[in-house]
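[INFO] parsing input record for Lactate dehydrogenase
[DEBUG] input buffer:
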Amino acid sequence: MAILMPKPDEAILARREAVVEALRAIVPGEGTVSAPAAMRVFETDGLTAYRQLPLAVVLPETVAEVAAVLRYCHQENIPVVPRGSGTSLSGGALPLADGVLLVMSKFSRILEIDFDNRCAVVQPGVTNLGITRAVEHQRFYYAPDPSSQIACSIGGNVAENSGGVHCLKYGLTANNVLGVEFVTMAGEVIRLGGKHLDAEGYDLLGLLTGSEGLLGVVTEVTVRILQSPETARAVLIGFPTSEAAGACVAAIIAKGIIPAGMEMMDRPAILAAEDFVHAGYPRDVEALLIVELDGPQAEVDFLLSEVEAIALAHGATECRISRSEEERALFWAGRKAAFPAVGRISADYLCMDGTIPRKELPRVLSGMKALSEKHRLGVANVFHAGDGNLHPLILYDAARDDEFERAEAFGADILRLCVEVGGVLTGEHGVGIEKRDLMTEVFSEDDLRHQQRVKCAFDEKHLLNPGKVFPVLHRCAELGRLQVHKGALPFPELPRF
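[DEBUG] output buffer:
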C-alpha cells in the first residue's frame, strides 16, 4: 500500500476478543461480525486498490445502537470508521486494523414523504435512486444523481457532498439537504435543520455535509424533492478535438444558458460506452458533449437551437437532438455506464476527481495528454463539463511491473495541474486517503490547523475516521497550545480567561 495509514494500536489489537464481546452486547446476533472471512466483503470501498480488514464490523439497526457503539468506542479510545454502501472512490470508508467499521446499510427506510412541503425524510442507507423511485408517481424527483445512484446511499452522499449529471443546474447534495440527525463520537444525538428552508445560527448543516465521516455519523436525512420539469431533451454533439468541446462548454455558459446537465467524454470513453450500452454514440469523433435542457416546451426548443448554433460555431461535426424520452434516456445510459464500460477495456483503472474553472478545460485536457505520455499510461475522460468537475480514468494493469505506482503518480500530477489552473482537489468524491497527502498543494499549515480545530470541536480524541483527509494529524491539545516568544504572548490586546 503506497498510501500509509496510522499504525495500529497494539493495545487495542491485544484486547480484540473483549471488544467484540462488548459490541455483541450492544448489537447482538448477526449485527456484529468478527470472523475474518465474513469481514472480507468490507475490506475496501470503491477505491479497490487499497484493502484492510477492520478490527470488527457492526451493523446497527437503531439510533440507540449507533449511539451506544460510539459511546463505548469513545470510552475505550477505539477508532470508528463509518460506512454506507461502500461506493466511495477516495477510500473514505477504508477500514482500520484497530478500528470498528460502523456499517449503516440497515438504516434503509423512507420515513416520510411530504409533497406539500416538497421534502422526504429518509434513513442514511436509502439509495440515491430509491428516493426518486418513491416520489416519481407524483412527478417528483431527487435532483443529485451520481453515476452510482443505483447503489450509493444518501448517508454517503451527505458525507461526500455528492453531485452528478444534474448538479450544474440543481446543485450538489449540500443544496438539496434540509436537515440531518447525527450522532457524535461521544454518543450524543443531535438534530440540525428540518423541513424549513434555513436553520438558525451557524451553518452546521453545511459543515457536516461533505465532512467525510470525520465529525459524526448521520442517522436521518431530510432532503428536498423537486417537481419534474414539463419537458427534458438532450442533444449529442460530436467534436474533432477535446479542446474544441471544452471551448464549446465555456461558450454555452458564457451565453447565459444553464443546462440541466452538460457532460463530456473523450474518444476512449466514447468507444467503451458505445460498445457496452449501444447508445448510438458517434465513433468518428474525438470528444462528445451531452447537453440536456429542461423546463417549458417553448423554452427548451429555443435553448436547443441556441446550443446547436454555438456548437456548430465551435466546429461540431454532429448534433443529434433526442426525439423521445426513450432516446434521451439512452443518451444518458451510455454516460452513466461509462465507469463499468471502461472496466471492460482495462484490467484496472483509477478514477480521479478534480475540479477546475470551465475556461481552463482546453488547457487541462492538453496537459493530461502530455502527462499520459510522461507516465506511459492511457487515460479516458468522463466528466461533468458544466461545472468543471473532471473524472479522468487512468488505465493500468496492477499485475505489470510498476504500473500501479505510475498510475498513482499520474493521478497526483493531474490533481496538481487542476490546482495550478485555479481548481481544487475534489468536486464530489472527497479527499479520503486518495488525496490526503496532496492537501498541502492547496492549503497552508495554518489552513489545515484551523480545519483540524473544527474536527476537535466534534471529536476531541480524533477517533472518527482517523487517517483520512488530513496529511498530518495534530492532537487537539497541540492545536490549542499557546506559543510564548521571549516572554511575550501573541495578540496581547486580547483578553485572556
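[INFO] DSSP finds 17 helices and 20 strands in the chain.
[INFO] shutting down worker
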